[in-house]
Amino acid sequence: MQSYNYEKLKELENWKSKMRKKPSFINKISKKTQDNMNSMLPENYHTVLTVAIKNMTKVVLFGSKYTTKKPLRDLSLEERDKIAYEKIKLFKKTAMLEGAGTGAGGLLIGLADFPLLLSIKLKLLYEVASVYGFDTKDYKERLYILYIFQLAFSSQEYVNKVFKKVEAWDDFEDILFDDINEFNWKEFQQEYRDYIDIAKLLQLVPGIGAIVGAYVNNKLVDKLGEYAIHCYHMRILD
């Protein structure tokens, strides 16, 4: 058990270094280009998207049917990891089927992929949190899930900011806001959209939509699962 934990601790340190890495020149150029494009869009556009994504996220994140997962107790880290990877594998299959189905359905059905995939991702995070013994009935644990989500789907510059909070969670949770509406939803939706925009646009292209949808969804869920495991390892091993 100790040797397994030690190996995971080494992996964790490598991942932490990745999270702290400063944006590359290409990262900066890409982010600046995306910001310029966003600045050309009317503020009402951002407001409508922010409200829509906030409401979609809150429905899943705070819906009673998802807050009843019982945290697993008295398991080793190795046992927890095995369960977590099985759950990730299951959610990847679900996301691939969803992506293929919406990708094959053309523009209108393809647009439905956004809320469906968002729901799959957040449900996965609930499952992983309970596997590692964290109670998602706790409001702060649900906020932690949001920060994991941001780590996985944000620009490197924003990842640097979010990781500081996640890495020092024991201290940061003491000063957390009590009202979920105080969460920065505009940045949440903008970073997420910017991250997946190009891939999701390709999913709407006739003929290749189903293949792109399945592939992209598989990769996105796989990355989220990996990040979630590292984030909970950080709280257990540190």
From TrEMBL:
<dbReference type="InterPro" id="IPR024787">
    <property type="entry name" value="EcsC"/>
</dbReference>
<protein>
    <submittedName>
        <fullName>EcsC protein family protein</fullName>
    </submittedName>
</protein>
<dbReference type="Pfam" id="PF12787">
    <property type="entry name" value="EcsC"/>
</dbReference>
